[in-house]
Amino acid sequence: MKTTWMLTAAVVLGTWAWAGPAEAQPISTRPITLIVVQPAGSAVDVITRLYADAVSKSLGQAIVVDNRPGGGGVIGLQNLKQSAPDGTTLVVTANGPLTIAPWMRKLPYDVNEDFEIVTTLFGFLQFVTVSAESPATSMKSLIAYAKEKPGGLTYSSLGVGSITHLLCAWVGQESGVAMQHAPYNSTAQYLLDIATNRIDFTFASYQSTNSLWHDKKIKYLATTSAARSSLTPDVPTTAEAGFPHLRYGVWFALLAPKGTPAAIVDRLSEQFWQVSRDPQIAQRLTREGIEGMVSTPAEAKAMVGSESAVMKKLVDEFGVAGK
């Protein structure tokens, strides 16, 4: 199996020598606790449960989803760090706590020392988003507009050091135009201000904006995916739009405690890969604007390392550490 992903920095992909489905054999006699660092009922929770139900049947072992939101993922990851390394406690977390947070503040965990990265799981399609009233119709015209507008462009995010903040600031740096950051506490509020043209642009997921897009209240100028999405075939990639480095987005990975036997890590990764091949699950992800990106442990570790290096550079350049 050769894996690819669409949302983040490209890494060298390996092959997965796997013979295919084997007879169901539980990893343990105890249920697997799958900690999700997002609230119950969220899109991440729903998709994770879809995977968990299928893997549970494949393994012949119960998987209990335990929602532990809060602390920017720290609560769930700290619990994982303290768990036995036997494959019965796992965490699904976004990339931010793995590749951005370590450069922002002191954490009660070390990504490299405390966790085994089992696999990447899925990512949310990300778009450069503007109001339907915006004069910008492309990345090129957005930058041209920024150069003409006094004070430059305003952009919104969920706070200093968020992936959206770093990407928007990066646009300003690469294009040489002034940018003003407007941090929000609520996605709904900052998207409302985008739709009403109070804020000039942001990076936002398809899942959070598709109703606004279908109602023609916003426009997508580009997607951070490596290829155009079938949901928005007329929207170019950031690479096509002249920003090849802006290929990052929000994605989620599956982690186990450090010291979990390699055989268990590999088996879990294989199980999630097998489930991701299910046409019904693949179609559900596509409808939701979510990209499946299950990988081998080695590929996932390389991906975290590659993105972490880029995010450290951005955190340092924009002086946001500790803020």
Describe the structure.
This protein is an alpha/beta fold and 323 residues long. It has two domains: 32-124 and 249-318, Bordetella uptake gene, domain 1 (D-Maltodextrin-Binding Protein, domain 2); 126-223, Periplasmic binding protein-like II (D-Maltodextrin-Binding Protein, domain 2). Helix content is 38%, strand content 20%. It has helices at 43-59, 74-81, 96-99, 101-104, 111-114, 139-148, 163-175, 187-195, 206-214, 262-276, 279-287, 297-318; strands spanning 32-36, 63-67, 89-94, 115-124, 126-131, 153-157, 179-183, 202-205, 218-223, 250-257, 290-292. The strands form three sheets. Strands 2-1-3-10-4-11 form a six-stranded mixed beta sheet, with helices on both faces. The protein has a three-stranded antiparallel beta sheet with strand order 8-5-9. A two-stranded parallel sheet has the order 6-7. α1 crosses α10 (262-276). The longest helix has 22 residues, at 297-318. The relative contact order is 0.21.
Structural class of the helix and strand makeup? alpha/beta
* Shape designation: globular
| Overall domain count | 2
Distance between the termini: 42 Å
Instruction: Please give the CATH class of the largest domain.
Output: Alpha Beta
- Can you summarize the main beta sheet? 6 strands, mixed
Separate helix tally: 12
Query: What is the helix/strand order?
Result: EHEHEHHHEEHEHEHEHEEHHEH
